[in-house]
């Protein structure tokens, strides 16, 4: 077996299949690839948007709801804890069921908690 993936040639492994990285490098960019790339890009954009929006909105929440810096820290930490747990669970589920189902569930959970956050009256309730 070779120690590197040579460009432009397909090396066979001991199992007789071609190396995946070389096959991907040699494949054409299709509309399906564009959709996959666009979906991944949109997901990263929305994650960044939520994180940045939290940083912009948090000072207003502190002033409006009269919460302490410690409570504001809990709000920010909940965001990242949710992302950590969601990514871990979605990753495991994606390995078993594919990516469509976990993505749909994550979007529904995100939408549900966004509605609950929009309907909350204060930090304490």
Task: Describe the protein's architecture and organization.
The chain is mainly α and 125 residues long. The protein has one domain (20-119). The protein contains four helices and no strands. It has helices spanning 20-26, 31-65, 69-97, 100-119. Helix 3 runs antiparallel to helix 4 (100-119). It starts with 19 loop residues before the first helix and ends in a 6-residue tail after the last helix.
Question: What's the short version?
Answer:
The chain has 125 residues and is mainly α.
Give structural attributes.
single chain; 4 helices; 73% helix; 125 residues; mainly alpha
Low-confidence stretches: none
Major sheet attributes: none
Question: Structural class of the secondary elements?
Answer: mainly alpha
Number of helices: 4
The coarse silhouette is elongated
Oligomer: single chain
Q: What is the succession of H and E elements?
A: HHHH
Average of the residue pLDDT scores: 81
Number of domains: 1
**What is the rounded distance between the termini?**
63 Å
Helix content: over 70%
Q: Return Rg in Å.
A: 22 Å
Please count the beta strands (DSSP E, at least 2 residues each). 0
Tell me what portion of residues adopts beta-strand conformation.
Answer: under 5%
